[in-house]
Amino acid sequence: MTPIDRSRLPTALLDFERSPGRYRVVLREPRALFEHIGSVMQIAAGRPVEGLPAEPANAPALRRAARFFVRTVMLRPGSDPLTLLGLHPGFEPAQLREHYRLMIRLTHPDFDAAGEGWPADAATRVNLANDRLSSPEKRAQHALAWHTPAGDVPAAIAGAPRRPQPLLPQPARPRPTFAHDETRAGWRSLRARLALAGMGAVFMAGAFLLVDPMDNEGALVVRRAPPVQAPVLPPSPEPGTPSPEDAAPLQDAARVPEAPRP
């Protein structure tokens, strides 16, 4: 890093904070910040940076802009361990330890400034990134997971092509219509109409069979069935009373005249 490059950091930081949507961070833009990301982390932590004034007039604004870059770019969802810790390929172990300490300090709740929305899992992600880059074997495993050589992980991420968009479905071509198709469709329509007419005729015939003819006033009259009456039975005689058949001999005997007395 040259002093000229470092002198561009304050302007690049303030410009990114004002208009972050102008830059494609997936392609490592703005390059002035990605190329000197270690200096950005030092500004965010309030430490002096070589080649920059120790106490610039806009120090609070620069610190706020640097923390905004760390929070929205380095800790964005899906960032790889190298970007999350601000490292480049071929970093030294001492640089890994220094950047890890800076990120732990920045994500600590006691260091959080009012109004800044740091991710809730920031410290966990920092520890996980440090673990994946702590040894050459783990770095190789991580690079294999990205399907790229170990030294080309950030370069592959920076220039990774976008996922191809799915092809749009081709519009359906109209099926050619032939004369026999139209004839077949006409016969189907005629048969459907005949079937409906037959069903209507059957329904009307059934209705006429169930209903009497109209009376003189033109209203339909429905016959009522005569009520069923129970047969009338003679009253049963009371107990001890002789029936008519038994009483007839008795009445005849009463009519016989008595014999004259001498």
Give a structural overview:
This protein has 262 residues and is an all-alpha fold. Among the domains are: 1-74, no CATH class; 78-158, DnaJ domain (Helix Hairpins, Orthogonal Bundle). 51% of the residues lie in helices and 0% in strands. The chain contains twelve helices and no strands. The radius of gyration is 54 Å and the shape is elongated.
Strand content range: under 5%
Rg estimate, integer Å: 54 Å
Instruction: Determine the CATH superfamily of the domain at 78-158.
Output: DnaJ domain
Which fold name fills CATH's third level, the topology of the domain at 78-158?
Answer: Helix Hairpins
Seen as an oligomer or otherwise, the chain set is: single chain
Estimate the helix proportion, in percent. 40-55%
Counting DSSP H or I runs of 4 or more residues, the number of helices is 12
Structural class: mainly alpha
Transmembrane segments: 194-211
Region (Disordered): 228-262
Biased composition (Pro residues): 228-242
Protein name: Molecular chaperone DnaJ
